[in-house]
Amino acid sequence: MNKKPFGIGIIGFGNIGTGTVRTLLNNREQIERMAGREMKLVAIADIDWETDRGVNLDGVRKEKDGKAVATANDIDAVVELIGGTGVAKEMVVTALNAGKDVVTANKALLAVHGQQIFRLAQEKNRSVLYEASVGGGIPLIQSFNGGMAAAKVTELFGILNGTCNYILTAMAKDGREYEEVLKEAMKLGYAEPDPTFDVEGTDTAHKASILASMLFNTAVNLDDVHIEGISHVTLDDIRFGQRLGYTLKLLAIAKDHGDRIEVRVHPTFIENDTVLASVCGSYNAVYTHADGLEGTLLYGRGAGPLPTGNAVLSDLIQLARRDGCDREVPYDNFFTVNKPLMPMANVECCYYLKFIADDHPGVLAQLSGVLGDHDISILSMIQLEPTEDGCAPVVMMTHEAQEGKVKRAMDRINALGVSRAVPRFIRVEQLPV
């Protein structure tokens, strides 16, 4: 190992930054053996140097100004771990303009400004690597760009948020309502004090847009992605789904139809015997279908300081191996197709429908009649015994139908006045076992 040390600068020294440094210190021998050279942590920038992170920073420069790290002559790669899309973008742009390669864990930054950042990297002949931005410790990006690079992925189904998966798993296994499990998740550290970003699907949508952009070679506009979280999911929904043989997951779904693509995030019922249905707790997983490969599953810890820090360091190893060569990723071949996103009204899938119907003769006929008028065929149905107030929950699973027609049918049923509550639907995806 006679190459010059590879200089690393980190901007942002929170949980992920600490996990990255701890992993570098604990696994230095392995990391440097894989990189083929010394991996030297040169400097860290953060506004808080009062908090003890519990790691040894002897010989590391401590800065408060991120630009001091982004432009330092003795740094080869800058690691952006600030988060957000403001200062983080400024630091990444500064580093690229200074001729540095960049590693980031910032999914929001890439989902919102990725096209601009990659274009600048192309102009400066530098790399922006982002393994840690999607899937934490699961090697998704390197798998798709490496071992699966020759495969044409046509479908992706991902459990990409550990908070939501923990909540839905606990609701299903323990029979507890959403609010109770959310409080537990916050207490255990699986959910942030303000969990909106996670439970309303935004975090998953950022990751879905990054993966779809990369796999389908098109710039996905986050504003065009359908985003729906889990805060409206009830325990009754989960129980009814279980009776019909389904498990509820928050899924990122991306499909390539040739001339257009789907990218959507929402609660989704999948059959109990599918592989994604067995992904429990805070774990993440991504299932893809590709020509020639058929189904591939990537599974592991989707978040946390150490798994994400491991992903950051895997990118740094890739950069260190280049030893000053030109950029590793051909950014000029990214986003060259610009396929439009399919409107949700045109999406076709199966549906779970729930009605709180009046217990009167002819109500079921009215419900099925409206569905039939909108080309919606019923696959299976559950009708519970009437309650004391004279209403009976009715749950139906449909065959594949177009979303626009389903919404129009639900609106018409709601207008009939035969349901005590607004009719609800949850999408269903038929996945390989």
Summarize the structure in words.
The protein has helices at residues 15-26, 28-35, 66-70, 87-97, 107-124, 140-145, 162-174, 178-188, 196-199, 202-216, 235-243, 305-322, 363-373, 403-416; strands spanning 6-11, 39-45, 61-63, 77-80, 101-104, 128-129, 153-159, 226-227, 246-256, 261-271, 283-290, 294-301, 348-358, 378-383, 391-398, 401-402, 424-428. The protein is an alpha/beta fold. Helix 1 (15-26) crosses helix 12 (305-322) and helix 7 (162-174) packs across helix 8 (178-188). The protein is elongated. The protein starts with 5 loop residues before the first strand and ends in a 5-residue tail after the last strand. The model has no long low-confidence stretch (mean pLDDT 92).
Helix content: 25-40%
Largest sheet: 11 strands, mixed
Shape: elongated
Q: What percentage of the residues does DSSP assign to strands (E)?
A: 15-25%
Roughly how many Å is the radius of gyration? Answer: 24 Å
**Alpha-carbon distance between the termini?**
47 Å
Average pLDDT number:
92
Q: Strand pairing plus helix content: what structural class? A: alpha/beta
* Residue windows where pLDDT falls under 50 for at least 5 positions: none
Q: What's the β-strand tally?
A: 17
DSSP helical segment count:
14
